[in-house]
Specification:
By secondary structure, the chain is mainly α. Among the domains are: 99 residues, Methane Monooxygenase Hydroxylase, Chain G, domain 1, CATH 1.20.58.60; 168 residues, Methane Monooxygenase Hydroxylase, Chain G, domain 1 (Up-down Bundle). The protein has 12 helices and no strands. The longest helix has 56 residues. The protein starts with a helix and ends with a helix.
């Protein structure tokens, strides 16, 4: 029995070493501890052979001697020690296996976090492009990014599978593993949301650039037509009828292109109604377009009115010229030095003078019409009112 007593203290040494609470902090430490623990198993297996021999020896003693009461408890304690030693080794092995799994999980979680951080950095880009081509390039880059994220998202899914397997085995740090997994998954979900948000913003930026391109085209056309409408060619009466016809064609062109202005206006209003991020800028451009379009219409109408006024002035000028020609003829006759040489010629001159007086009397009504027309031009704020008034006053005074 002294052999049994000597074996017990020796067998407690590996048991105490296995009771150590030290756990690995890295995968390499976990693998080293598992390897060392396996070496201890070989040491334990060697001691188990001594256990077996001692147990066999004790059973023989028990069969041959009558002192069974002294041997049997020793054999029981020996068996209990064997079971305790094996249980301690198994428990430590299980703990080390779980620690190894934990370090594997942490490493994969760190890799997932690092991967997510690199993708988040890509999304921390406020560049939305300043032209249609640049926005389309950014959209292509984002589509490639999304494809890459989808292709590499398996590392997070693999982390989820690993954590489920570990937790299902009642891991000692199940709560920590679950919490870390939730943090990674939440970060992945935020990445997905950020990616979708940037895609929407880039799509809105593309819509903005398309709207601005259409706006530039319409604004350029309006500016060009504004220059034509602002031309004061009505001040030159040459080919006035042709100018009136050309302006009528010009106004028809404006009317035909009214739909272009309406189309780009509707496009901008739809973007604003959809909550576009550049809604204020779009509204400002729409207000500017509306003002430019109204100004063009007003300028075109003013030119039409001025052309009509110029035509009326031209007709009135012809009337004045006709009146001036008649007055020149009358004055020429009145200034004649021919007073007749005899009775017959004098009678002839008197008859001609009587006719002239009748003609002058008959021209009183046209003169009244000239006065009224000049007043009308003045009251209507005709752009040639001062010139017309001066000419009419000159003729009337004659």
């Amino acid at each position: 029995m002294q052999t049994s007593e000597r074996l017990r203290p020796g067998s407690q040494i590996p048991s105490k070493r296995m009771d150590s609470s030290e756990l690995p902090a890295t995968i390499s430490e976990a693998e080293a501890m598992l390897e060392l623990h396996q070496e201890r198993k070989a040491e334990i297996d060697g001691r188990l052979e001594a256990f077996k021999n001692l147990k066999y020896f004790g059973m023989r003693l028990s069969a041959n001697y009558s002192e069974q009461e002294d041997i049997t408890p020793s054999l029981a304690r020996l068996e209990e020690l064997r079971r305790t030693l094996l249980a301690a080794w198994e428990e430590r092995r299980s703990r080390l296996d779980q620690a190894h799994q934990l370090q594997l999980f942490k490493e994969q979680a760190d890799q997932a976090d690092s991967w997510l951080a690199s993708k988040e950095a890509f999304l921390h880009n406020d560049d939305l492009g300043d032209s249609l081509s640049s926005v389309e390039m950014l959209l292509r880059k984002h589509e490639a990014f999304e494809k890459m994220v989808t292709a590499q998202a398996g590392r997070v899914e693999e982390l989820e599978r690993l954590s489920l397997e570990i937790v299902a085995d009642h891991h000692y740090d199940s709560a920590g593993i679950t919490q870390r997994l939730q943090a990674v998954v939440s970060r992945k979900d935020r990445l997905k949301e950020s990616s979708m948000a940037r895609r929407r913003r880039l799509q809105e930026s593309k819509q903005l650039q398309q709207f601005l391109r259409n706006m530039y085209e319409v604004e350029g056309w309006i500016h060009q037509k504004q220059q034509v409408a602002s031309d004061e060619n009505y001040r030159d009466p040459t080919n006035l009828q042709s100018k009136i016809q050309k302006h009528a064609a010009f106004e028809s062109e404006l009317s035909a292109n009214r739909g272009r202005v309406a189309a780009v206006t509707n496009e901008g209003e739809k973007l604003i109604g959809a909550g576009h991020f550049a809604g204020m800028e779009i509204q400002t451009r729409l207000d500017e377009l509306d003002a430019a379009w109204r100004q063009l219409q007003d300028t075109s109408q003013l030119k039409r009115d001025r052309l009509n006024d110029a035509y009326q002035a031209l007709v009135f000028s012809a009337t004045l010229e006709e009146q001036e020609t008649w007055m020149d003829e009358v004055e020429q006759q009145l200034q004649s030095e021919d007073h007749g040489k005899d009775l017959s010629s004098v009678e002839h001159l008197l008859k001609r003078h009587t006719l002239l007086e009748g003609d002058v009397h008959n021209h009183g009504e046209p003169m009244d019409q000239i006065k009224m027309a000049a007043s009308t031009f003045q009251e209507s704020n005709h752009f040639m009112r001062d010139e017309i008034q001066d000419r009419a006053r000159e003729i009337i005074s004659r």
